[in-house]
Every structure is written in C-alpha cells, then in structure tokens.
Protein 1
Amino acid sequence: MVRLIFRLLAVTFGVVGAIFLLFPNGTVRAINATGSIFRVFPPAPESDLRFWLSLGVSYMALVTVLAVLIQKDPTRYRHLMPVLAVGKFSSSFTSLLFFVFTSPTFLYLSNFLVDGSITLLVLGCYAWTGVVSQSSANEARWVERSAPVLDALIDTLFPSGGAFEAGGQATPLARDLSQYFQELHTHGLLGLGLLLRTLEYGPYVFGPRRTRFSRLSAEERERYLGDFERSRLTVRRQLITSLKLIGTLHFYNYPEVQDAVGYDGRYVREKLLAGPNAADHRARLQ
C-alpha cells in the first residue's frame, strides 16, 4: 500500500510539474475559475515572469524523483520520506501565510490544503513503515530467543536432530521452518513464536513434570507431544498436527532424506515441472 501511494504521488508530481511548465497562466486561470464558484475569493494575478516558475518546476522535479525512489523500496528509502514531507510542508505553510497576509485567493488556499494533506500522508507512511519494520525486527528476535524450543521440537520429531547428515553437511530444518513462517504472512514469525512459547510452557499445565519443554528429556518430550496428539482438546491436537505437517513437508523435501528412505521423486517432479507453476517449482528444485 505504501509503495502504491508513492507511485501515485510520483505520477501526480510529474504531471502537475509538466502542467505548470507548459501552461503556467492557464493553471492560474483554471484555479481562479474553480474558486469563483464560491464567490468569495479574489482572482490570483497572472504573470509573465518565469523566474519563479523555473524554481517551482525544479521543486516538482525533485519531489517526483524522491517519490520514485521511495516507491521502489519504502523500507530502504524510508529516510527520504521526511525530506519529501519538509518540501510539501514548506509549500503548504507559505501558501497559508500568503493567503492570510497577502491576498486571500483560492490559489493559495487550495495549495495549502493539497500540500498539507500530502505532508500528513507522507508522515503517516513514514510512521507506519517504522512500526512495521520494528515489529518485524522484534518478531525475528522473539523467534531467535525461542530457538532452543524449536531445536528441541525438531530433535523429538525427526531423526538425527532434524538434520540428516550427508557428506558432513546437515539440512538446516530450523532455519527453513522460520523462513516458511516468515513468508507465510506478515506476522508469520509472531505466529511461530506463539506456537513455540505454547509448547515451551505447556508442561507446567499438562506434565509430565513441571518444567519447560526444552528442559525435558527425550523420552519426556516424546510423551508430552504424544499427549497432544491424543488430547480431547481440538486446539491442542491441531497445534501438534500442524507443526508435524509443516515440519515433515520440509524434512522429506531434502534430497539427502529422500535418498536415505529410498524415495524416487522423479514422477512427482515431472508432474510439477509440467504443471501451471513449473517456473516456481523449477527454481525451488534447483
């Protein structure tokens, strides 16, 4: 949404700047005609002097470039948003001063309202991208602190600690699961963190003894997860079932694991590469 907003702003700035350059007096006459509808605003005078027009068009070119850069990557170019906001605020505020102390024309009032609204919009986008970036960073740190829980879960559900060794290298299942949740939704890491925290402190309620899941022995962790599968609570069963499903889909996708269990995926691979999402599957399989 932020990218779309700045894309529209870039187009608007570019078009309006071109109109200013090509039809300076025509722009003034058009705004005067609009203001005449209210019958309270005196007309703004036209001018043959083009010095201020040169400066105004240069300003419009600058804000257009800023908007183009920001729309490419709002997070990376977030620091440019206050620069754009300062330009629009200056334009809005000076128009208000001219309206109050010079001449109450509709030209000054409309520029005050339009550029003032753009200033608020840009600052709102600046604040929102900051909240999103901070939220993502906090979620990543939260999952990082839950890494021992994820490792204990993988060690319990999968052989070789969830990392089938081949040629001295291990499949990074914990990293792949975190990446999956991150790509699944904007707050996917938050969801993963909540699931892991639920598992971590579940033994205080369900046993087999009152301690954290990551501190249980291997046998106790197996019994604890088994109780989840046999529970009468649908939510409790669904939690472990979902985690097992996601984990096994990733685990058995590793070529090392497929070779170890004697699985021949050529048939499925050929079907995937011949289907409608062949390009995505080809990139993934490579």
Note: The chain has 14 helices and no strands.
Protein 2
Amino acid sequence: MFPSGASHHDSNTLPARSREVLLVEDSWHVAIAIKAVLTEMGLSILGPAATLARAEALLSQSLPDVAIVDLNIKGRMSYALVERLLDARVPVLIVSGYADLGPLTGRVSAMLGKPIDATGLRDTLEQLLAPKRSG
C-alpha cells in the first residue's frame, strides 16, 4: 500500500499534546498501514474499528480530534457515522475506493482515494490537525 523505503516524516508541525484519531477501516492490511503512519506521527489511535458498531462504541467513549473513515464498512455505508462526527465538529478524512461521496459530498474535511500513500496521508492529517487561525 505504501511505497517501500518511505522516509520518516518530521511531524514538528503538529502540536505537542497527543492528538486522538478514530480509525474506521474493515480491511486489516489497510488499517495496519494507516495505524503505522499514525503511530509514527505520535498520534493516539481509537481503533481500528472494523465494524460500524465498534466505531460507535469507541465514539461513545471519546471524541477524537480527527476521524479517518472508510466509506464502505463490511457492506454498509458509513454515512450516519460520518454525519455524527461532522455534527460533533470532528474533521473527517474519508479513505475510500469510491469516487462518489453521496450525501457527504462537500461536507467532509478531506478525501483520499485508495490505494493511499503515506506522504499524502501525513500531509492531509497535518492540515486537519493544524491549529485553526482566526481572521
């Protein structure tokens, strides 16, 4: 999934405190690859959740700083989960093989198509986790 020999990325642009990421992905190898990047970036991980029920259970315990969600989880679309996250003002990064976001079009914070690469994932997460500037 990620190119071999990918270099470690300097994550000094992220705030010092550990940020929490909800990871919802039903493909084991994709979840492990994403989890490796999150760990390398020093982020805390909720999950990975391979079912929508598990994702909801994790969400009921803690509100993450950002969520990474696959659009299709075991044959079920994750629209309701994403809507719940958006309603709670959690930035959502969709990672999916689907090009059409359906009812979420224009609402999610970012989207990466599968297969994803480590650099694109890191760069997108850094943008989503960057402190918001007013003005």
Note: The two ends are 39 Å apart (CA to CA).
